[in-house]
Amino acid sequence: xxxxxxxxxxxxxxxxxxxxxxxxxxxxxxxxxxAERSGKIIILESNTTAxxxxxxxxxxxxxxxxxxxxxxxxxxxxxxxxxxxxxxxEFSPADLIKFFAxxxxxxxxxxxxxxxxxxxxxxxxxxxxxxxxxKPDIRILYGKKVQSVRKDGDIFVIxxxxxxxSAKSLIIAAGGASWPQTGSTxxxxxxxxxxxxxxxxxxxxxxxxxxxxxxxxxxxxxxVQNVFISCKINGKKISSSGPMIFTHNGIGGPAVLDLSRFIxxxxxxxxxxxxxxxxxxxxxxxxxxRPVSNGVxxxxxxxxxxxxxxxxxxxxxxxxxxxxxxxxxxxxxxxPKALAEIICSNYKFTDIIxxxxxxxxxxxxxxxxKNFKLTAVSADLLEKATVTRGGIDTLQIDRKTMQSKxxxxxxxxxxxxxxxxxxxxxxxxxxxxxxxLAGKSAVESLK
Length: 447
What we know:
single chain, alpha+beta, FAD/NAD(P)-binding domain, 21 strands
């Protein structure tokens, strides 16, 4: 049998049943599912290793899914719930956990519903997936950046720098445009567009928000354990809850990231995308910029577990018990000290002691703690987003097979599709589920 490098130079052409572009979680699972149903498979990965982005998920711990039934997971994907329904039922959270358990990796559920490997190492998830790719019918070619894709008759021709691949079926699982340092540079959009597909403009999702309030920089790194954030978009209330952290130019943390899914298309960008990088990556037309907005007003309940009435009673008791204490120290019982000092400074409570605090002051403070106002003026950079909102239009994809409605035997999986879910393992679950369904369907399409 010829060495693969010799094969490239002697023939410049490799023939295969199925070619998969991208060796992230979606691409790897697609190959695994396809190999179980026979067929020669080649995976092209532009990086020198598989699963670069996977290793970074969950801060290196890999939050691979979320607890709950398939229907509960599907509901969390609104407004994309109808599209993801079939693939998540085909390969559910229970199926995913069982997949890794059968290969010796246990998982643990955290109180917030996130599911991690018991080892707390994303590298263990990657190792199991890459071991599966060592099956005889699978070849993975690393460091092979795809330049273009075209279809000649019934055959896909995938062009790289030194060779071409001729494939009967093709899966594009090249990721989105977030975290480009991991290889997700938006190439999948370009390939899909060249095959006739519409690309929904990529936006940042699950991303920190930039605020108009400059005092956030003084609070950078300060976290609030649990908040309830809400805003109104076209008269409709949007909300999320969970931890929040202040950043040097705004706010982040799970509660903010979840809210960002629904408001980034209403906001301007922190800056426009670099035109040189855009030209190099050949992003589809219309993907580079978003309109600037006047901002979205956010209401943050810093104490969602206590009502206005309960807070009034407790605050009154504290003020009476310690009449000589400064107000910042009183507030610091409820919020981080640095935030308490900012609140005092904004409302000129700094020089007042508890015994001088009036009922009007108390009502102002309660309203501030229960309805802390910030104005989000932009999303942070798409490059910093956890996932991309936007991508290949789902109206052009058969949700029961992941096959293109425009181009036979062309399939899509993972973040390259216009699907995004909340924080907590949902997006990885979709990557695995859509990859499984695409791989299974691609092989069946060849029979």
